[in-house]
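To the team - nicotinamide-adenine-dinucleotide complex, inputs and output below.
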Amino acid sequence: MNILLTGGAGYIGSHTAVALASAGHAVVLYDNFVNSSRSVLAALQTITGAQPVCIEADVRDTARLAEVLGSHSIDAVIHFAGLKAVGESIEKPVEYYSTNVQGTISLLQAMQATGLHSLVFSSSATVYGDPQYLPIDEAHPTSATNPYGRSKLHIEEILADCARSDASWRIACLRYFNPVGAHASGLIGENPNGMPNNLMPFVARVAAGRLPRLRVFGNDYSTPDGTGVRDYIHVMDLAEGHLAALDFLTHASGWHAINLGTGQGHSVLDMVRSFEAASGKTVPFDFAPRRPGDIAACYARVDKASDLLHWQARRDLATMCQSTWHHIQSSST
Ligand code: NAD
Ligand code: UFG
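Output:
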């Protein structure tokens, strides 16, 4: 199939591009590089052996999108493009709603104009808010506590309305838990601009001596060791989940929300210990107050992905940490 990846130069998009190319699909990246680097293109060429096709443009440019969908005979779209920093979304809500919600509406208009109806959307476990029970299944009530999460919820609802209005739509909203790790080559991975917000890039930079110490936000949660518990999933497993979702949409119509996680929860201290084992380095840390808006624990029920997509995560915590370590050693950020 010919697949368009909006936001395809980003962290999850670039890994998915590799997984799709190795399964024989033709991939077109569509990205404005607001949160990624053009150097990803050379890395993708080295990994896949082919020069990636990349359109530099904004998802809110509906005419450009429609032209690309038509000229590349696109069969399905994976919509990664968006802004994703929770704290920044509170400071700049208009930018977040514009990029995330307006960007998705622009994509839907371009797809409608070209008669294309297969769409995989990057949603997030953030749509579950503070979990009422664990593991979280897809029937768990949804809520949002910040503009980023609300943008994902709005988009999911808009997509569900589309599917209700027209039986031609085939839409999978993939609710990612915590993606970490990197491609085994070390050539692509997570390269946040400035100070990392997320745990794994921060831990990796402390292990590499680029940041002095980790702050562990909270050691008084009602979790086994008092630190926050999350469902960390290897980004290549996540990438393969998109391949499975595209396959599913070839025979399923309508709107589907599906968790992509491992089903296992790991604490901040588990992650620190695993990273120390993978890197052979010490990760010095201090306990700090809880981070505002954080929840104690969050991990997925993964039966739906297994039943519908015939997909499950295969890579363990050691592989997640080793690949992150390999990537940080090969990158300068
Ligand atoms: P990322 O920032 O690395 O990738 C997003 C890409 O979209 C970037 O390359 C960026 O340049 C591009 N982009 C942003 N605005 C654009 C626009 N207006 N037009 C064209 N391109 C634009 O982020 P990621 O971690 O790869 O996340 C991909 C998607 O998955 C996002 O929608 C994010 O909200 C979602 N998600 C990510 C996580 C996570 O922890 N990484 C968790 C849940 C959901
Ligand atoms: N943490 C620290 N120190 C740090 C960074 C994080 O102790 O420097 C802790 C957090 O308090 C939390 C855990 O590590 O307990 C994980 O934090 P992350 O910031 O890596 O991830 P979150 O679960 O908070 O959020 C991530 C994305 C969200 C997304 C959510 C669910 O940032 O956008 O996963 O997919 F919505």
